[in-house]
From TrEMBL:
This is Cytochrome P450. It comes from Nonomuraea salmonea. Residues 399-441 are annotated as: Disordered. PROSITE patterns: CYTOCHROME_P450 (PS00086). Belongs to the cytochrome P450 family.
Length: 441
C-alpha cells in the first residue's frame, strides 16, 4: 500500500526515534500540525495523531469515521518484511481491541466484569509476595537490572496467578513471552508456539475443572464466549497487560531515582510514588503510539485528507506532551493525560494496573531506599519499536540487605507493609487471592 502524500514521513523506527522520540514528535508537529505522516516499518505508512484535541476526537469517534477493525487495511498491505513486522501488533483478531459496536461491547463486558472480581486487597497481597520474592533474588548483591530482575517478571508472575496457575508454573509463561519478543525469528516462533501452548493448556484445564480465577470467570461469563473467543480474550489480556505494565513500572522507577523531588521522597516524602506514576503516564506513556484506528470513509481530519481503510495511530506520547497542553507544574493527578487512553477503548484495567505498579514500586523503594542509577538517565537504553516506550535495561546500585541482618527485610516480611511483617506463604496459589463470580454460585 502506498499513500500518495507522504514524501517526508517521520520514521517511528531506527536509532533516532528510539533514542529521542520526543524530538521526532516535535519536528513532526512543527511541520504538519495535528496529524503527521509516518512510517512504522520500512514502507508501511500511517497517520500519527499528535495533538491532544485530535487524539480525543479519534478516541471518542467524534465524527463517526473510525474503526478498530484492521482487516480492510490489512488486505491492502504488501508482502514485505515491514508488513510482517507491522502485522505482529496490528493483525485483526476476534477480541476487544480489534472490534467495534456490539461485538466490542460484549468482549469488553467480559473483561470489565471479570477484572472487577479481583479484590484489590488480595491483588495487593499477591503483588507484595511476587515483589518480595524478586527483591530477595538481588537484594544481597547491591546491584540489579530492574527491567529484567523486577519490572518484567512482576506482571507475568501476577497474571499467571490471576489466570489460575501456581507461581511455580510462571517460568513457562515468562520464557515463552520473552522468546516471543526476541528479534531472532527462530526464538520468536518458538516463543509464540509455547505461548499458545500455555494458553491452550490453561483453558483446557479450566474447562475440565473450574477454579476461582480469571480464566474460569471468562469461560463462565454470561456473555457465553466460545472456547476460541476465551482463548483470544486471554491472549489479549496478557498481551495488552504485560508489556505496558512492565514498562510503566520501569519508566516510573527510572524517573524516581533520577529526580531529587522523588529521590528525597523515598525517605522523607516530597513527591510520592503516585506522583511519579502519573508523571510517567503523562510524559512517557508506555503505550506511546499503540492507539491503532482505521478510517471507515474518507475524512478531512484536522487539515489532513485521509482515505478509507488507512491506519491512523493515536500517539498518546505526543498528544500528552503537546506544548500547549503540558501543565506548568506537576499536579498530583498528572494534569490531564491519555496514558490509559480515552473513549470506548480506554484501558479497562487502569485501576488494577495502577495498583500493581504502585505496590511493586513501594515495596522496592521501602526496602532499598538508596537506589541509584548506574548511568545518567539520558544514557539509559530503550527498546526499539514504534508502539511501546520501554527501557531495555535499568541498572541500579544500592546498599545490600541480607536475610540475617536486623530489621525488616524482604526475607522477614510478607505482609501489607514492611513495618507490619507476617509469616511467609510463598509459593502462592491462585485460590488464595480470588473471589467467587456472582454467576458461578
Ligand atoms: C493489568 C494490566 C493491563 C491489562 C489487563 C490491560 C488490558 C487492556 C485491554 C484489554 C485493552 C483494550 C480495551 C478495548 O479495546 O476496549 C486496553 C487498552 C489500553 N490500555 Fe491497557 N491493560 C493493562 C495495563 C495497561 C497499562 C499499564 C497501560 C499504560 C501504561 C495501558 C494502556 C492502555 C491504553 C492506552 C489502551 C487503549 C488502546 C487503544 O486506544 O486502542 N494498559 N488495555
Amino acid at each position: 500500500m502506498t499513500l500518495r502524500y507522504l514524501p517526508d514521513a517521520g520514521k517511528l523506527y531506527g536509532p533516532e526515534f528510539t533514542n529521542d522520540p520526543q524530538a521526532v514528535y516535535a519536528r513532526l508537529r512543527e511541520r504538519h500540525g495535528a496529524v503527521a505522516p509516518v512510517e512504522i516499518a520500512p514502507g508501511i505508512q500511517a497517520h500519527l495523531v499528535i495533538s491532544y484535541q485530535a487524539a480525543l476526537d479519534v478516541l471518542t469517534n467524534a465524527d463517526g469515521a473510525w474503526s478498530k477493525d484492521s482487516r480492510p487495511w490489512q488486505v491492502r498491505l504488501p508482502d514485505t518484511p515491514g508488513a510482517a513486522a507491522a502485522l505482529g501488533m496490528l493483525a485483526h483478531r476476534d477480541n476487544v481491541l480489534f472490534s467495534d459496536g456490539a461485538d466490542h461491547a460484549r468482549y469488553r463486558r467480559v473483561v470489565i466484569d471479570c477484572y472487577s472480581m479481583i479484590q484489590p486487597h488480595k491483588l495487593r497481597d499477591m503483588v507484595i509476595e511476587v515483589s518480595d520474592s524478586l527483591i530477595r533474588g538481588f537484594a544481597a548483591k547491591g546491584s540489579a537490572d530492574l527491567v529484567h530482575e523486577f519490572a518484567r517478571p512482576i506482571p507475568l508472575r501476577v497474571f499467571n496467578l490471576l489466570l489460575g496457575r501456581p507461581d511455580s508454573d510462571s517460568a513457562a509463561l515468562i520464557s515463552a513471552l520473552y522468546d516471543m519478543m526476541e528479534a531472532d525469528p527462530e526464538a520468536g516462533a518458538r516463543g509464540s508456539e509455547n505461548y499458545y501452548r500455555y494458553i491452550i493448556e490453561l483453558i483446557e484445564s479450566k474447562y475440565a475443572s473450574r477454579g476461582d480465577d480469571l480464566t474460569s470467570w471468562f469461560i463462565d461469563h454470561p456473555a457465553g464466549l466460545t472456547q476460541q473467543e476465551a482463548i483470544e480474550a486471554l491472549v489479549v489480556t496478557l498481551a495488552a497487560g504485560f508489556d505496558p505494565m512492565a514498562s510503566l513500572i520501569s519508566n516510573t522507577i527510572s524517573r524516581m531515582v533520577s529526580d531529587d523531588r522523588y529521590y528525597s521522597s523515598l525517605t522523607n516524602g516530597a513527591l510520592s510514588t503516585y506522583d511519579a506514576l502519573m508523571e510517567a503516564l503523562r510524559a512517557e506513556p508506555a503505550m506511546a503510539n499503540y492507539g491503532p484506528y482505521f478510517t471507515t470513509r474518507a475524512v478531512d481530519f484536522h487539515g489532513t485528507w485521509i482515505q478509507p481503510a488507512e491506519l491512523v495511530l493515536v500517539s498518546y506520547a505526543a498528544a500528552n506532551t503537546e506544548p500547549t497542553h503540558v501543565p506548568d507544574e506537576l499536579r498530583s493527578d498528572g494534569g490531564s493525560y491519555l496514558g490509559f487512553g480515552a473513549g470506548a477503548h480506554r484501558c479497562p484495567a487502569s485501576d488494577p494496573a495502577t495498583l500493581i505498579a504502585m505496590t511493586a514500586i513501594e515495596r522496592l523503594t521501602s526496602y532499598l531506599s538508596d537506589l541509584e542509577l548506574d548511568v545518567p538517565r539520558e544514557e539509559l537504553e530503550w527498546r526499539p519499536g514504534p508502539f511501546i516506550r520501554s527501557l531495555a535495561t535499568l541498572p541500579v546500585s544500592f546498599t545490600p540487605i541480607r536475610p540475617d541482618q536486623p530489621g525488616e527485610s524482604p526475607w522477614s516480611a510478607q505482609s501489607a507493609s514492611p513495618s507490619t511483617p507476617s509469616e511467609p506463604t510463598f509459593p502462592a496459589s491462585p485460590a488464595d487471592y480470588a473471589t467467587s463470580a456472582p454467576w458461578s454460585s
